[in-house]
Amino acid sequence: MTIRVLLADDQALLRSAFRVLVDSESDMEVVGEASDGAEAVRLAGEHVPDVVLMDIRMPGTDGLAATRLISADPALAQVRVVILTTFEVDDYVVQALRAGASGFLGKGSEPEELLNAIRVAAGGEALLSPTATKGLIARFLARGDDDRLDPAGAERLGALTGREREVLVQVAGGHSNDEIAERLAVSPLTVKTHVNRAMAKLGARDRAQLVVIAYESGLVRPRME
């Protein structure tokens, strides 16, 4: 299957570079380019891509608002948004994860990292660079400490079984299903089942949002390295 990619960035030079990179891969194709968030939303509805590479800072409708609109559209439920950012610690990135983005990637990443991120997102894993994403959220939440805890999120955790909570803690630690299976002495399939059930109960779109919920509910406490 060919992975259909939509590019959203206000810099034409960057879009051109991304297009050349993506179109050079036999399993990918660029289906559209947007120079702002409003156009990204329109083209997402028109082409229904597998992955949107979304710049966070664009004129008019920015990447955050566009991500929220795409994620809220039931017709685009299978579209994965990957945020492109120049800043690794950025309030907007965390807001984008809350809004439904599947993860983030620095604009300074190597070409192979970008291509791998697209494949991972298209495959449904959603959480890109687990350790980096976890670290970003941890550092951001640590700034506000208890002020950033979400009582409603903590209440929702009551719907989880003990094992689902254990798995959620491991997900927030940036561990893959295979790593969690080894740590908890269960099969990767069992871990996947627990992750899917936790997402359904907590209303999370993907693993990235599970990480945010784990920190904001207080289940996992941020630790500064």
TrEMBL record:
Modification 4-aspartylphosphate occurs at: D55
Residue ranges annotated for the HTH luxR-type domain, each copy included: 153-218
Pfam families, alphabetized: GerE, Response_reg
Keywords (A to Z) from UniProt: DNA-binding, Phosphoprotein, Transcription, Transcription regulation
Signal peptide: none
Residue ranges occupied by any Response regulatory domain in the UniProt entry: 4-122
Superkingdom assignment: Bacteria
UniProt key word Ribonucleoprotein: no
Protein name: Response regulator transcription factor
